[in-house]
Every structure is written in structure tokens, then in C-alpha cells.
Amino acid sequence: MAPRQASALGGTSTVLGRKLGGELLRLRDASGRTQAAAADELSATATKIVKIERGWVPVRDPDIKALCEFYGVTDPALVRGLLNLAKTDRERRRARGWWDQYPELLAQVEYVALEDVAVRVRTLQVTVIPGLFQTPDYARALHVGAGLWEDPDEIERYVETRVARQERLTDDRPIQIWAIVAEGVLHQEVGGRDAMRAQLEHLLTLTERPNVQLQVLPYAAGAHAGMSGAFSVMSFAESGAMDVVNLDVRSSIVWLESERDTAHHVNIFDRAARQALAQTDSRSLIRRIIKES
After folding, report:
1. What is the pLDDT of residues 94-117, one digit of tens each?
2. Domains in the chain, please, with CATH?
3. 3-state DSSP assignment of residue 256
4. Is this structure's pTM higher than 0.90?
5. What is the C-alpha to C-alpha distance for residues 21 and 56, in angstroms, rounded to an integer?
């Protein structure tokens, strides 16, 4: 799917905008209010409510507060979460970052832009090293092998985006990342034996950082919660802001924005974490693989 969707009524859909709009729609439905009634409450047109609920426009704090009161929402934490989500979405819409220089990112633009404002990412990977952890040689070999591009210059520019993304690990507001990786990923010699050894050594270095947590799902775990596929759960800086889930498939990037979908994937992640090795044991396993390579 495209990272951003233009509406026939004007405006541009964003992941966080759709998340916010979906929550406001859920609250309106629960209250029994109509779109027309909500529009009257804001002294606006029904079209504005449609745009808000479909994530096509940024939403002002006074409108959120008025709608929550109109819908009978009494939980201050819920209102605060909606306000924080709206604030992050407005900032994201205004942002112009390094990623805009790279058309090679294609549908990943929205993911990279959200990663730039996220405070935490939980990612479960069963086929590749997480993007924030990849060395240039690993990333280059991965995309040559995938056959997505044949032009070496395009591949190199994509590798540049991998390196640029990783600045979030060390900048003045380092992202917290908790990664669970299947053991088979560590044995797959992407780029050859030397490149893979360097990648594994890089993983060991990263796990020394306080903002990085890495667990390995060992072969001995047998059938595990992560076998249904890779995904990431992104959380945002403001306390109470709601999470979104990203599914990375070969042909597109899929976003799951409902509370039910998010809770389902957080549950899968938590189960996989319980089945995985602790970080200390994961480091020992990586050292052993390096020694045997």
C-alpha cells in the first residue's frame, strides 16, 4: 500500500492520522452520535468529521476536547492519549527530513519518517537482521540478493538510507529498540562469511548500548509465537500516545492501526520474548556462532 493516501475530499491520509481518526470514530459510535451531530458540535460541516475520522487532516486540540466531551469520554488518560497522538501527527505532517531525498525508499518513506519521531520500537524478525542493526555490507548484499534493483547506484543510495536511519541509535534522543531475532537469521551468510561475521560482531557492539535490547529465538524453542511473520510495534514520545503496528511484506508495507490489532501483536511479541534467550545468553550464542564461522 502507498505510505500516504490522498483523499477525494482534500487532505492526505497518514498512519497516525488514521489511528487518531479511528479512535474518534470508535468513541462516536459508542456514544450513539451521528457525524452530523458531531459536526454541529464543532460548528463545522459533516465533511470535516469525515476527514477527521479517515485521517485526512490534522486535528486541533480544541476539536478533540470538544468531541470527547460530546461523546461522554470521562477518562482523562484516554483524552490525553488522543491529544498526544494528534500532536505527534501534526509534527509528522510538518516534518521534512533526510528521507525526502531518497525516492529509492518507495513505500518505506512513511515508516522511516515515523521511526524518526518514535521513542521506542519493538521488532520481531524471522528472516533478516533488523534494519537499524544492519551493517552496510549486509544491507547491500540483502538488496542485491532480493533483486529489487539492478542499478548499483540505486542500491548504494538505499544502503545510505540504512546508515542514516541508524543515527537514531546514537543521537541526542536515542530510540529505544527491543529486537527479537530468530537464530536462523544469524547463520544465514548474507554477503558471505566475512561480511556476516562483521555483522554479528556489530550486533555484539550494539547490545552494549543502554537503549538496545536484543534477544535470540533459538532453534531449541521449536514452534514459537513469531513464526507467523515479522512485524514492528512503534511507540511515540508523548506519554499515552497510542502504538501502531507495521507488517513488512515483500511487495508493500502494511499498517495496523486498531487497538485490537495492536494488542494482538504486542501479545505475540511478549510471548516470543518469553520463549527467546535473555540478552546475556543471546550474546553468548552470537559469540559462539562467530567462533564457529
Report:
1. 877 777 777 767 667 788 888 888
2. 5-94 (1.10.260.40), 102-292 (3.30.870)
3. strand
4. no
5. 9
Q: C-alpha grid cell for residue 176?
A: 529505544
Residues 63-96 as b/e (b if ≥16 CB within 10 A, e otherwise) read bbeebbebbebeeeeebebbbbbbbbbbebbeee
The CA distance from 211 to 36, in Å, is: 47
Q: What is the chain's mean pLDDT, rounded?
A: 89
* Distance of alpha carbon 128 from alpha carbon 237, whole angstroms: 27
Cα dihedral 263→84→249→13 (10° resolution): 120
Residue 175, pLDDT score: 95
Burial per residue of 155-181, b for 16 or more beta-carbon CB atoms within 10 angstroms, e otherwise: bebbbbbbebbbebbeeeeebebbbbb
Q: Give the three cell numbers for residue 149.
A: 534493483
Cell numbers describing residue 211: 537503549
User: 20: which residues sit within 8 A by CB, 6+ positions away?
Assistant: 52, 55, 59, 82, 85, 86, 89
Between β-strands 176-182 and 231-236, what pairing exists: parallel, antiparallel or unpaired? unpaired
* 77 backbone φψ class: left, alpha, beta (φ>0; ψ -120 to 50): alpha
How much is the pLDDT for 8? 45
CA angle 10, 60, 14 (to 5 degrees): 45
Q: Report pLDDT digits (tens) over 15-57.
A: 899 999 999 999 999 999 999 999 999 999 999 999 999 999 9
Selected residue with higher pLDDT from 38 and 248: 38
The pLDDT, as a whole number, for residue 140 is 92
Using CB atoms within 10 Å of the CB of residue 42, give its burial: 0 to 12 exposed, 13 to 18 middle, 19+ buried: middle
Judge whether 145 and 109 are in contact, CB under 8 Å. Answer: no
Q: Give strand ranges (E) for the chain.
A: 5-6, 12-13, 118-125, 176-182, 212-217, 231-236, 244-248, 253-256
